[in-house]
Design brief:
8 strands; about 20% helix; about 30% strand
């Protein structure tokens, strides 16, 4: 299960992830991070059975957490199944089905947005 951690300037200098790992003993995998002194966001893969515990540990340290259930949304009316998104996805989320339509395994998505930028029809958007 993936979550997005939003860090404010007040907490970016703190070792939040290390503290949460030590407190919860949960194995966390950082899928993507964009953190600057003014704040940032980190996509973290969390074991499903530890979601509540990990989320509470981050929130008590001042981080805002959002569960990433559907990181990329495809507009089926706009998608022409050209496959441009397939070639740029760094984690293999998008592929062709046997009938050459697009399918997505959103459990692999790290919300990098590369597919959104590449889509010539604007059929993909990132969810918050």
């Amino acid at each position: 299960m993936k979550i997005t951690l939003y860090a404010t300037p007040e907490i970016t200098a703190k070792p939040l992830i290390a503290e949460v790992i030590l407190e919860t003993k949960a194995l966390l995998n950082i899928d993507r991070a964009d953190v600057k002194p003014k704040g940032g966001e980190v996509v973290i893969d969390v074991p499903q059975d530890r979601y509540d515990e990990v989320t509470k540990a981050f929130e008590k340290r001042g981080a805002r957490i959002i569960r990433l259930e559907l990181p990329v949304i495809k507009d089926d009316d706009e998608c022409v199944n050209c496959g441009a998104c397939i070639s740029v996805c760094p984690t293999g989320v998008i592929s062709f089905k046997d009938d050459w339509s697009i399918e997505m395994d959103v459990s692999k998505c790290v919300q990098c947005g590369t597919c959104v930028t590449m889509c010539p029809h604007g059929a993909l958007t990132l969810s918050e």
